[in-house]
Amino acid sequence: MSAFVVGLDVGGTSMKGGAVTREGVVLHTERRPTPRADGPDAVVAAIQAFILDLSHIPPAGTELAGVGLCVPGLVTPDAALFSANIGWRDVPASAFAPEGVPVRLGHDVRTGGLAEAVIGAGRGVADFLFLPIGTGIAGACVLNGSPYAGATGWGGEIGHTPVYPDGEPCACGQRGCLETYASAASVARRYASRTGRTAPTEEIAIRAATGDDPAATEVWTDAVQALSLSLATYTLLLD
Ligand SMILES: [Zn+2]
Q1: Which structural domains are found in the chain, ordered by start?
Q2: Is the pLDDT of residue 69 over 90?
Q3: Has residue 101 got a pLDDT over 80?
Q4: Which residues surround ligand 1, an ion (CB under 5 A)?
Q5: Distance from the alpha carbon of residue 161 to the mean position of ligand 1, in angstroms
Q6: Helix 214-238 × helix 184-195 angle, to 10°
Q7: Which of the four, 71, 94, 191, 193, has the lowest number of CB atoms within 10 Å?
C-alpha cells in the first residue's frame, strides 16, 4: 500500500495544508483561516478538522503515514508548549490529529529552514540563515543541514536582537529590536505614524526608491540599517 503524509503550517492568520506522497508528489494544497480570535481551543479544533479533511483527499488504497505540523512559538516534536500569538500552552501533539495517527510538531520558521535545506535554496549548503521577513522576523540557523534550536528552543530569534539601544519599544518588552524596525508590519506602522496614512509595505518601498516621499525614505532607511546591523553581527558570530 502506498503512503502519504499530511503537512500543515499554522500561522497567526491562515493555515496552509497539503497531502504529499512519500515520493514528494503534492496531491492537494489548501488554505484556511486560523480562528485565532475564537481562542486556542478553537484553533486546535480547526487544525483537527483540517487534518481529517486532508487525510481523506488521496485515493482509496493509500495510507496516511503521519502528520507534520508547523506551529509558531515554543515547540518540541511532541508538544506545542507556548504561543503568544495563538494563546495555547502545553498542547500535546496527539491532540491535533485523529487517534492513532503519528504527529510530529515543528517550529514554523525552523521547519521552513529545514525545507530549504532539503528541497530549496539551501540544498548542498551546510550552513546558512533562513530569514523570512513578514509580519514579524524570525530566523532559522541551519548548521550542518539541520536547524539549530538552541538549549531552550529560542535559537534563531534574530528579530529580537536590539539594533537601536533606547529605540522604540517592542512587544517582547525590550527596546530597539530588529523586528520593531524591519518587519513588514513595522515598516507600515512607522510610515503610518509619520504620515497619518496607511499603505502596503511594498508601496512604501517603491516610494522610498523613487525618493519623492521623505517619510518613506526615512522608514525604509531605518529598516535596511537595522537589518544590516543584525546580519553583520550574525555573520561575525558564526563565521
Ligand atoms: Zn523584541
Answers
A1: 2-113 (3.30.420.40), 158-238 (3.30.420.40)
A2: yes
A3: yes
A4: 160, 170, 172, 174, 177
A5: 7
A6: 150
A7: 193
